[in-house]
Amino acid sequence: MANTIITISREYGSGGHKIGHLVAETLKIPFYDKQIIEETAKKSGFTPEFVAEHEEKLTNSILYSFALGAIYGIAYPQKPQMKELPVAEQIFLAQKTVIEELASSACVIVGRCADYILKDNPNVLKVFIYADPIVRRRRAIEEYDCAEEYIEEIVKQRDKMRRIHYESYTVNQWGKKENYHLMLDSGAIGIEGCVSLICHASECFQPKSR
To answer: Rounded to whole angstroms, how far apart are CA atoms 200 and 205?
Structure first.
């Protein structure tokens, strides 16, 4: 797999975090998920708790949305200063820098728009994990201690938050097959099956030319 970076995007309750962790263990490479919060805190000057609370919150200002878009190549006449951006955007940009630095060597990165942030890196294998809603609700109850009486709403809301976050900071559609190299149904294949397939894919992966 040489210097392959594996990004894991996932539906809530699909087991994407666990799959990513097991892939990293199997391949003996670093695994990054919550650890990114600590590094982002160092970059941004905020506390880890503050970063964790705000990393998926968005501003309501369309002007700031366009301003942020300019950083990713969307036409906008002037690049904003970091201090001019709302807190959520400051955290996102600090997180972007952290992810780019982590991708200097082989690793597994979960979430945080990493697949898009690293879109110009030829060594990135992009994976999306999904599952049937029934499977995801059951996992959320059993593994995440979610309240059973509200589980359908919880799963839908968390997916909605991830989609809005992703599509607000990128020009891609969350969960659309064209944006990933590998899409796996963890309910049908199982956690171990997904781990095995991702590891095999990393061995077969042919980095794109720049």
So the answer is: 9
